[in-house]
Amino acid sequence: MGELIFEARGVDFRYPGATDDAVRGVSLEVRPGELVGLVGPNGSGKTTLLRLLLGVLQPSAGAIVAGGQRAAAWDQRDLARFVGVVVQREEPVFPLKVRQAVLFGRYAHMGPLGAPTAHDLSAVQRALDRCDVAHLADRWVSTLSGGEWQRVRVARALAQEPEALVLDEATANLDMRHEMEVYELVAELVQHDGLAGVLVTHHVNLAARYVDRILVMDHGVTRAIGAPREVLTRAVLEDVFEWPVAVQEWDGVPQFVALKKRR
Length: 263
Known about the structure:
Blueprint (H helix, E strand, L loop, with lengths): L5 E8 L9 E8 L4 E5 L6 H8 L7 E6 L2 E2 L5 H7 E4 L11 H6 L3 H4 L7 H13 L15 H14 L4 E5 L7 H18 L2 E5 L3 H7 L2 E6 L2 E6 L1 H4 L2 H8 L3 E6 L2 E6 L5
Parallel strand pairs: 3-8, 3-9, 6-7, 7-8
Antiparallel strand pairs: 1-2, 1-4, 4-5, 9-10, 11-12
Helix pairs in contact: 5-6, 6-7
């Protein structure tokens, strides 16, 4: 693997007015061609860490480096070229066709008044093809299923020609098939296109099947980090999620089942 795309070095962060740190002493490295999952219960600090990696929040201690420079030093326009972000929910504010929606991924390259160049249009077409939504290019976004819309949003991020792809609970409201399709797509983009991927999710079992490394967070701190097979143990999962579980391997990957709590 190549040089680091994201690096967190012992970072702390506390929201104004809070009595405890949302993130405390967390370190993480993400390289090209690597998919890293951030998992943990609600309030564990996953999304806060993601915002720190993206330079949206500034750590009170430690450092965040993205693309070889401190995240705080990034111009937002340059950052939009460097990393594509797909969040959980997003509703179009005005009518758009799919090709137009994906073209928005080029705005950091085009400028607010710039007309799309041949390269911009080519990048859009490549993203549509790569995400298997080219056949939807002339459909109105409002007519898409949830799974189709998520794939279009990944295509928009890919049209930015980024070095990193970040998803924050991007499959939370999808049914099984469409959720699996998004995971398959992201894993393929990371593995075959060399992107660095960061995936924030509540779905530990799915993350374990696709990510290279997984960071388990709880109350803002790192509880375990490493390959899923190394860190997703019964002891870790029961401690973090405060619920009895059974863990067994499926295709060499740990999968857990929540058990009934005996009274």
